[in-house]
Design goal:
Low-confidence stretches: none
Bound molecules: magnesium ion
CATH architecture: Alpha-Beta Complex
Number of strands: 14
Helix content: 10-25%
Number of helices: 4
Strand content: 25-35%
CATH superfamily: Fumarylacetoacetase-like, C-terminal domain
Order of helices and strands: EHEEEEEHHEEEEHEEEE
CATH class: Alpha Beta
Length: 203
């Protein structure tokens, strides 16, 4: 199973990190060992003192595909979730400034939180979903999938030009603005609409 992540997919988040708007989707991968096991906390790793939360909509691939036309992308996923792309921002900034790959900052063990999976048929329109992240009870990130630069179907089409998508692969579709540091004893809750998709403690 692989995890394919999209960076810089919401204009408000591109602006907050002072990045340039990409001409094509920014893609990176997470390892299979990045996934946080069920009901486990997130442990702040010792190589970073600036771990950020990035709440993101996820889809799970249900069919093998390559060179998928975006008109048919919807046939490749049924389930939708919400997760966190935990990012060692200090390390990522250093790697970025040296022109090096981001993996150490993005794909480390425990860097991927995946919430519960829900069938897409339970939503009216997955291209218009409100989602949010609460940090210790305060809403810190709010997004709507209609504000993505590339929507889920376009992402699936794009990444399948490079990587064969396989059953069980997960796509992280990018974060809206409001990313920020997590600290020991924080608690994070992610919601699509009013429905809770995950709850996690920081240790
Ligand atoms: Mg992200």
């Amino acid at each position: 199973m692989k995890i394919i992540c999209i960076g810089r997919n919401y204009v408000d988040h591109i602006n907050e990190l002072k990045n340039n708007k990409p001409k094509e989707p920014v893609i990176f991968l997470k390892t299979d060992t990045s996934v946080i096991l069920k009901n486990q906390p997130f442990f702040i790793p010792n190589f970073s003192s600036d771990i950020h939360h990035e709440v993101e909509l996820l889809v799970k691939i249900k069919k093998v595909g390559k060179h998928i036309d975006s008109r048919f992308s919807h046939k490749y996923y049924d389930e939708v979730s919400l997760g966190i792309d935990f990012t060692a921002r200090d390390l990522q900034s250093e790697l970025k400034s040296r022109g090096l790959p981001w993996e150490k900052a993005k794909a480390f063990d425990g860097s991927a939180l995946i919430g519960k999976w829900v069938d897409k048929s339970s939503f009216q329109n997955i291209h218009d979903l409100n989602f949010s992240l609460e940090l210790n009870g305060d809403t810190v990130q709010k997004g709507n999938s209609s504000l993505m630069l590339w929507n889920i179907d376009e992402i699936i089409s794009y990444v399948s030009q490079f990587f064969t998508l396989k059953i069980g692969d997960v796509i992280f579709s990018g974060t809206p603005s409001g990313v920020g540091r997590v600290n020991i004893n924080d608690s994070l809750v992610g919601k699509i609409g009013d429905d809770e998709f995950f709850k996690i403690k920081i240790k």
